[in-house]
Specification:
Aldehyde Dehydrogenase, Chain A, domain 1, globular, Aldehyde Dehydrogenase, Chain A, domain 2, six-stranded mixed sheet, 2 domains, alpha/beta, seven-stranded mixed sheet, 478 residues
Length: 478
């Protein structure tokens, strides 16, 4: 089946086609997806520009009802959508269903936020003058989403954009277009005016650059690599557009001597190599103080070796495949770098053979690491976790903060003193205590610092900062 683009309320064939292949079994083609031409992207932009005032002019209740309808259908089909997600991206079925559930919850949350757009009414410093400040839609918004969360991230970008009255153009990752296509198909059957949501599939050099370069696209929200994010920022900010970037991470997890060992090891493993390590919030730098270091390292290796790697739709699998050959090659390259740097690979890092031809590798635990090693400093985005040693709390915090990224961080400790001190001193946008650094709620702000993020936060009520613009009005009573 050819899955087409959605432009101005119509399903439209593209200028070319791209097969979507299952990373668990490369002989399984998930679908064939139409690739939009630059001219079609421009048509979609024009449609969004025409439709946006109509959508913004509808009542908040009308927008809320449509978003609630979308969220409700996603939740009613979470098993089906989760299976599609797992088939095209490679995360195990429980995680795929969980992500589809999250997407539905996000739409239902922002259905209510459509009714809660607040302003202020205050007295002027001048007699007889009143001032009101209100939030209005930013306009036409381009959304460029990644492959690792192929329905949750599109949802947490689309839902607030729509709740606040914007029109949307979404470009999903070429590796995982199926989940977004299914989401837009749900939207296409609502009462949303034609042109409010447009799906344009294709590569970054064609679709992405056309979106970013269009002066009719008022804002662009991007999630992906640091290099591509920098390119998006130059293109959008350079023409005066609004831009929001969520990029890489190399999250640290400090484990203090007073931590509960079972909790600490669970956090270290579940927050790093699970989901095949393909999460920007993964705690891939484990920093242990001396008294607990050896115990943690040994138990991490035992748990990693016991994890079952297999087909994403197999009920017995705990970890699925890596998303594609390119990512698999990247993982192996960093393991070679770690070996050359003198670190000790305790387990994992092998290409695994399974009945299906997929991109399987065993999760790797690396010890005897230092913070100046390349594999410790750079994001790998695979099931690879590095363990470092720190003399005490202060040194552990210094190591944790000594990185170009600042998305998420964590600490495992039984001490309220250490927990509170780390929350204050961490140079990350999100801090976890006795929890993995990967795993966030949808109703609170998401985002980081340094090279991890640029612009205002995503998710929760903070999303209004990006998807709306402020207008201040003055009235003289006469």
């Amino acid at each position: 089946m050819l899955n087409m683009n959605f432009i101005a309320g119509e399903w439209v064939a593209g200028s070319s086609e791209l097969e979507n292949v299952n990373p668990s079994d490369t002989s399984d083609v998930v679908g064939t997806y139409a690739q939009a031409s630059p001219e079609q992207v421009e048509q979609a932009v024009a449609a969004a520009k025409a439709a946006q005032p109509v959508w913004a002019g509808m009542t908040p209740q009308q927008r809320a009802d449509i978003l609630d309808q979308i969220g409700t259908e996603i939740l009613s089909r979470k098993e089906e959508l989760g299976a599609l997600l797992s088939r095209e991206e490679g995360k195990v079925l429980a995680e795929g269903i969980g992500e589809a559930t999250r997407a539905g919850q996000v739409f239902r949350f922002f259905a209510q936020e459509a009714l809660r757009v607040e302003g202020t009414y205050i007295d002027s410093v001048r007699p007889g003058v009143a001032v009101d400040v209100r939030r209005e839609p930013v306009g036409v918004v381009g959304l460029i989403t990644p492959w690792n969360f192929p329905i949750a991230i599109p949802a947490w970008k689309m839902a607030p954009a729509l709740a606040f009255g914007n029109a949307v153009l979404i470009k999903p990752a070429s590796l995982t277009p199926g989940s977004v296509w299914a989401l837009v198909e749900i939207i296409s059957r609502t009462a949303m005016p034609a042109g409010v949501v447009n799906l344009v599939m294709g590569g970054g050099g064609t679709v992405g650059d056309t979106l970013c370069g269009s002066t009719d696209v008022d804002a662009v929200s991007f999630t992906g690599s640091v290099a591509t994010g920098a390119h998006v920022r130059r293109m959008v900010a350079g023409r005066g557009g609004k831009v929001q970037l969520e990029m890489g991470g190399k999250s640290p997890l400090i484990i203090m001597d007073d931590a509960d060992p079972e909790t600490a090891v669970t956090c270290a493993i579940s927050g790093s190599v699970m989901s095949t390590g393909q999460r920007c919030t993964s705690n891939t730098r484990i920093i242990c103080t001396p008294g607990i270091h050896d115990q943690v390292v040994g138990q991490m290796a035992e748990q990693a070796k016991a994890l079952r790697v297999g087909h994403a739709l197999d009920a017995g699998s705990q970890i699925g495949p890596v998303v594609d050959q390119k990512q698999l090659d990247t993982n192996f390259r960093y393991l070679e770098i770690a070996d050359k740097e003198g670190a000790s690979r305790l387990c994992g890092g092998e290409r695994l053979q399974r009945p299906e031809n997929g991109f399987y590798m065993s999760p790797a635990v690396i010890a005897d690491c230092t913070n100046d090693m390349q594999h410790v400093r750079e994001e790998i985005f695979g099931p690879v976790v590095s363990v470092l040693k720190a003399d005490d709390f202060d040194q552990a915090v210094a190591i944790a903060n000594d990185n170009d990224f600042g998305l998420s961080s964590g600490i495992c400790t039984g001490s309220l003193k250490y927990a509170e001190a780390f929350k204050r001193r961490s140079a990350a946008g999100m801090v976890m205590v006795n929890l993995p650094t990967a795993g966030v709620d949808y109703h609170v702000p998401f985002g980081g610092r340094k090279a991890s993020s640029y612009g205002s936060r995503e998710q929760g009520r903070a999303a209004a900062e990006f998807y709306t613009t402020l207008k201040t009005s003055y009235t003289l009573a006469v």
